[in-house]
Each structure stands twice: as C-alpha cells, then as structure tokens.
C-alpha cells in the first residue's frame, strides 16, 4: 500500500524534477514505439500480437523497476532515496514505532520558519512500503535519544519567564541548537535524495 507524503522543497528543484520526469516519459514513449516496430506488431494478429505486447510491457516494467525509465516522481527519486537510506544506515529491519508515538516526520527540528527558508513548493509523493518503512522507522529510532534530550531541555527551561521559569542562558540556547541539529526529519532525507537526483548522483 503506497504512503503519500507532502514534503516542503525549493520551487526550482520541484520544477526540475517534473521536467526530468517529462523527459523520461517522452523517452519511454519513443522506446515503446521502437520496440513495437522491432516486434512487427502491425503485422501480427491474435495470440502472436498479444504475446508481443506482453513481452514489451514486461520489458517496459523491468526498465522502470531498475531505474532506467524514471517516468514518475517516485521512480525518479527512488534510486537516490534508497542510496541515501543506505548511506545513513537506515536500510535495515527496525522495530515498529510504538503506538501513540510522535510521527517520525513531525519531530522537533523539522523545516519550520528557520530551517525551512526557501522551501515554498510542495512535493507530493507516494512511497512504496519498501521505502516508507525504513524511512519512518529509521528516522524515529535514530532520533529518539536526541528527542529525549530535547524534552529534558524543555522540562528544565520551558517557555521561560512568562511561565515562571528562568530564561534560558546563552549556553542553554546553544545546547538546544546542538541537540536540534542532530534531529533528522523524513523531509531532510527526501530533500537530500531530490538534490542527488537532480545532480545526477
């Protein structure tokens, strides 16, 4: 079952991604026309025609699966996303996220007003289970110690004098920034994969 995500991205990168997908769709259309010509589908009838078309569809699907024909946003991003998950050590079996836990993409340190500068476009993408599971579970479990440290920080400093607590010292604010910098969001990983896709990595 696909899992739909909405990721904040730079508008120029989204435009370039869609242009890449369009180019890939055009290239696949040319490939299919050539494959049909080579198979002589115009001369075939009945079972032979159905068999030829089935072979062409199977080859088209194989080329899509191996990343040769990247005819959708997901197919364009999947190789780089898989590589990024592997690079971060997330492509492995993770325990399920505990029920009721904060969702992985909603942890503190996400692309808010400070970290999200310029991320005004929205990339809508439906991830397969094979990508979704390591992404969400991996982000949750690797973030857990940093999120816990941030919660301890909040327990100590809270919202500040307005709530009857002392204002956070400069050192405490620096510590909060250090903790937050270690928190990775699902959006961070997908944006990195998008950049790698567009740069041909």
Q: How large is the share of residues in beta strands? A: 5-15%
The chain-level mean pLDDT equals: 88
Strand arrangement in the largest pleated sheet: 1-2
Order of helices and strands: EHHHEHHH
Percent of residues in helices: 55-70%
- Count, helices: 6
Q: Which structural class do you get from the secondary structure elements?
A: mainly alpha
- What is the global morphology? elongated
Please give the largest β-sheet. 2 strands, antiparallel
Number of strands: 2
Taking pLDDT < 50 over at least 5 consecutive residues as the criterion, the unreliable ranges are 109-114
Radius of gyration: 23 Å
Cα-to-Cα separation, first versus last residue:
28 Å
Tell me about this structure.
The chain is mainly alpha-helical and 201 residues long. It is 59% helix and 7% strand. It has six helices and two strands, in the order E-H-H-H-E-H-H-H. A two-stranded antiparallel ribbon has the order 1-2. The longest helix is centred in the first third of the chain and has 29 residues. The two termini are 28 Å apart. About 3% of the residues have low confidence.
What is the topological layout?
Layout: E1 3-9, H1 11-39, H2 46-65, H3 73-87, E2 121-127, H4 129-157, H5 170-181, H6 186-198
Antiparallel strand pairs: 1-2
Helix pairs in contact: 1-2, 1-6, 3-6, 4-5
